Amino acid sequence: MQNFSEKVVFADANEQFGRHLKAAIDIEAGDVLIEESPLLVTTHWECEQMKCAKCCEDSFVMCKKCQFFPLCIDCTEHDAFECEFFTKATKAISKNLLINTYALNSILKLLLVMENPATSEKCTNLMPHNFKLNEYRNTDMWQDHEVSIVQPIMDSGLMDCFRSIQKAKGDMQDSDFLHKMCILIDANAFEVSSKVTGDSLKGLYVHAAKMPHHCVPNTATAIDNDYNMKIYAAVPIKAGEVIYNSFTNPLMGTIQRQHHLRMTRHIECHCFRCLDPTELNTHMSSVKCKECPEGFAICSHGKWMCMDCNAVLDAASVQKLLIQASEDVGNANGDVMAYEQLLHKYAGDFHPNHFLMIDLKQNIATILRAVLINSMRDPNKDVLRRRVDLCEEILPVVKAVIPGYSKLYAIALYEYLLSFLELAELDFRSKEIPKDLYIEKLQVAKEICLESKELLSFEPSNSPEGHLVRRIAIQQEQIDESLSKFDSK
């Protein structure tokens, strides 16, 4: 399935972008622009648990025909072309190649799509714009792929079995071609979730992958349980404007986002957020000035300067601080007290909205939710208040960097709602707040429900976000019921 709205048109490649989409007319937020089925859904490189070749669920048995690909209990067969290919190929190579090195699963799946005459044409335009293989050579990513992917395939002799690929790739060495395919997967993959287990998988979508990147995209992406993708306008888009997607985590700082884009897509982003040292006034990368009590330093062209007193910070010292803080966050390893201590420790070094501080706050809020859910006793008000405070600090940042129809903001709102509402109910029952204030809080909670549902209104009903909409609707019904009891008195 590949459907394009008449509101978008293809634009020819230029120095900045490859062939891309532009708005043909003014587009309203929520308008569907692209609907697309995946070319391929497969596992991540680091996945060790074998997955069914057909449905990607956990598997512990092999296909009886090809004896190469795993299948689950419910699937008795998989794609006919790949099964027949390896039925023949395993006469020349080991049947245990995939079992022994399951990291090969993704690239083997892609090679089969390219080898298959019925699907090979869809792969022709997947490489990043202005792609140059030598720019990737000898990077850390290249070395990782060399050890875990390229060398095992080269040693197996499998490449000789891909006859159509051998003709199409011309004089390129097999090892370079395999590296190119690894990069293709890394550069184009979208994260999708298994429809049964919820495990993270990656999907390749031919047209969605060609959309240019922007750290503040004007589109949002929805993927249903059958891995069908829908891309819709997150904000109003004027006629002639480029249609953008985002291929990095919006809650990272500029330096970190750009490093990620460089490593995965080999692009340099020059969007307005990346060019703004304050990151849209969120200060997600700002550090505390050491010369004045209230100032924060921002980085412009590699120079860290305080916005209040113009003091210049030593760039090497800032870098050392970032490295140490990142290591500390990683070493905390899910310990809520360690996260709280780090939040206190670095409060004098980073802006409260710094991406590392936001990361700490998210981690704490997540753990506290688990504590509240798993507690055998009544919810602890102090825990609820702490979680409410954390959510209130996180929400404005999320809204600023992902405006419009944002599922991340909608989910953050829902997480806030859970603790906000429960705390209000406990405070009212214990008579810590009067009836009027409780009613006011119920009305606020209802507004949160309405906003969350609106932000998720374009998500497929059979997606995780669609299921969340139904949970929010149930929550809203309960709030309405509580409000009606007061209205009747």
UniProtKB/TrEMBL annotation:
Alphabetized Gene3D superfamilies for the sequence: 1.10.220.160, 6.10.140.2220, SET domain
Source organism: Stomoxys calcitrans
Protein name: SET domain-containing protein
GO molecular function per UniProt: N-methyltransferase activity; protein methyltransferase activity; S-adenosylmethionine-dependent methyltransferase activity
Lineage, broadest ranks: Eukaryota, Metazoa, Ecdysozoa, Arthropoda, Hexapoda
Pfam families membership: SET
Superkingdom, taxonomy of origin: Eukaryota
Domain SET: 18-246
